[in-house]
Amino acid sequence: MPSVSVKLYSVFFKFLLKHRLQNRIQTPPEQSDPFGVTTRPEESVVPANPSFSDGVATKDIHIDTVTSLSVRIFLPESALVPAEPRAEARSGRRERRYSYGPPLREEASRRSEGIGVEGLNLMTEGMYRGYAPAAAAGRRMPVVMQFHGGGWVSGARDSVANDVFCRRIAKLCEVVVVAVGYRLAPENRYPAAFDDGVKVLNWLAKQANLAECSRSMGGGGKEFKKLDSHKHIVDSFGAASMVEPWLAAHADPSRCVLLGASCGANIADYVARKAVEGGKLLDPVRVVAQVLMYPFFIGSVPTRSEIKLANSYFYDKAMCMLSWKLFLPEEEFSLDHPAANPLVPGRSPPLKLMPPTLTVVAEHDWMRDRAIAYSEELRKVNVDAPVLEYKDAVHEFATLDVLLKSPQAQVCAEDIAIWVKKYISLRGHEFSY
After folding, report:
1. Which residue in 327, 372, 378 sits closest to 353, CA to CA?
2. Which of 48, 125, 226, 407 could form a disulfide with 58, with the two C-beta atoms 3.0–4.6 Å apart?
């Protein structure tokens, strides 16, 4: 069973959550913001930090002028370590999976002493600004696109909890994490959050293509001298676009993993389906796997856990029903809505086309059985879809602020890293890491 402190905090948490949800339900429509919000006033947030003081640099980018859609990029310091020559040579062959080992001791020592930094990147006043896309000194890292939880109505890409979790994933997996600040309900109901997820995936593909244009136009090898002098490219629609230097220099979008927690897992699964349907239209982005952490699924026919654990910790079923009412348009509200039930008939594409899917569930989470059922259906059509179930764990046990420092949260992140590395490995060998 969960500890006494977890039980007590859960009572307090549910009291506040219920109060906030009821207030939002009672908010008149005219007070809604058409531009959308991605962070609530009560949310504790942490500012972006472009230095590597704790091993990961972060940067916030607003990527849509029409809405509040934004992302936070998490770049691990290991991205500045030169790749092994053999791995670099192999990368040109576009193999399905790659591997990159930990930094060599000599390289790690030089990095810690600040040796060779001038030739690798542009550091100004301790802040990392990036370098030219063609620079071969740094590493090309896989991309993890992350979607936070919060029951559609709360949470943020820059919240303290999400910042800590994404830093942990960036370090353990050695990846560039792109945390998505999607629009929240009820200001923006379904399908706003889903559309935002797909829009970020398309933005990532556009960034990769702009970086390639930059190289082909002779921008390779030249450092970005100032933050405001990044190379601008005119895309096929005639609009000026700016190359994001961190992604251009370090991201390998052909190895993209989608990761979501709670309702964020629901968004990740939707984006994965759209990526399958888009196919080569998303080139060079390729979704190679997804991780669904305690996915926020429901259905009209209750599962055993939905009956037995209806009054579970933190996010009980009654509270989540309020969240669904705030997210789904009133005229479309149904527990078997395609956005709510992953196994509703007619959902496309066919499950056999879905990417490998790791599902994380908690013993004391009322949503666990439906997540497991979805995973079972994926396995029936030969999709690699293991389930990791954590004993005595509650919903959001690895991403909630008060539980992030628990041993279970750390172990869960490590388990995710082990599985993810199977699909981002460069040597075509799942145990090459």
Report:
1. 378
2. 48
Is residue 215, in this structure, part of any structural domain at all? Answer: yes
In tens, the pLDDT along 190-209 reads 999 999 999 999 999 999 98
262 is catalytic: yes
Q: List, for residues 74-93, the tens digit of each pLDDT value.
A: 999 998 887 665 444 444 44
96 part of a folded domain: yes
Cis peptide bond upstream of 102, omega within 30: no
Q: Could you tell me which residues come within 8 angstroms of residue 311 by beta carbon, excluding any fewer than 6 positions away? A: 317, 318
Within 13 A of 148's CA, how many CA atoms are on the CB side?
A: 30
Residue 41 neighbours by CB under 8 Å, 6+ apart: none
With beta carbons less than 8 A apart as the criterion, state whether 383 and 288 touch: no
Tell me which residue range forms the domain holding 266.
Answer: 4-28+50-222+230-424
Q: How many domains are there within the chain?
A: 1
Options 148, 337, 364, 395, the catalytic residue: 395
CA separation for the pair 371, 261 (Å, rounded): 12
Among candidate residues 195, 316, 365, 369, the one labeled active-site is: 365
Instruction: Please state the pTM of the whole predicted model.
Output: 0.86
Confidence (pLDDT) at 287: 97
77 DSSP 8-state letter: G
**DSSP helix/strand/coil, 252:** strand
CB burial readout 114-153, b (16+ within 10 A) else e: eeeeeebbbbeeeebbbbbbbbeebbbbbbbbbbbbbbbb
- Which entry of 68, 159, 262, 312 is annotated as an active-site residue? 262
pLDDT < 70: residue spans in the chain: 28-34, 83-125, 131-138, 215-241, 427-433
Find all residues with CB under 8 Å of 159, minimum gap 6, and list them.
39, 43, 44, 45, 46, 148, 401
pLDDT in tens, 319-351: 899 999 999 998 999 999 999 999 998 888 999
Query: Cα–Cα–Cα angle for 259, 262, 268, nearest 5°?
Result: 35
Alpha-carbon distance of 214 to 90, in angstroms, equals 23
- Give the residue carrying structure tokens 């993890």: 144
Alpha helices in 97-242 (DSSP H): 105-113, 117-120, 160-173, 192-214
One-character DSSP codes across 89-128: HHHTT--S-----PPPHHHHHHHHHTTTHHHH--EETTEE
Residue 21: CATH number of its domain: 3.40.50.1820
Residue 412 to residue 137: CA distance in whole angstroms = 32
